[in-house]
Amino acid sequence: MARHGATPAQPYAGMQERRIKALSAEQEADLRAGRGMALALAAQLNGYPGPMHVLEHAEALRLTAAQRAAAETLRRRMLADASEIGARIVSLEMDLDALFAGATADAGRLAAITAALGAMNGRLREVHLTTHIETREALEAPQLEAYQRLRGYRPTP
Questions:
Q1: Which pLDDT does position 69 carry in this prediction?
Q2: pTM of the full predicted structure?
């Protein structure tokens, strides 16, 4: 079987075997699990850390018990919200795939599904970005600076 990217003339060869044509198994799993998938890079790389990475560096950041609890609460809420939205995105992608697989595609149904997908993708990104804002608010300036160094975004003095 040809693999994705096998030749320039066949960049999608093999992808027709996917359960959902527009999503790899990894993308589907990421959506269902609520993982970040780089959706919050605008925040992450501009000084707004996410709760998962803050918790990974809890000792080095000298988080207080209250800060740990806040980060854990934010992490749990983000994963719950993101996985719920992610499941909806997967379902809509399945609907889109079925629309074309069943040779029943029409402009009206396509518009409805893609509009819903756009809204869900926007909402998913908002959930991740909002959580980064809330995480930043839970930290002190020296912790934010230390976080940037720990993640390699700023040079170590």
A1: 98
A2: 0.90
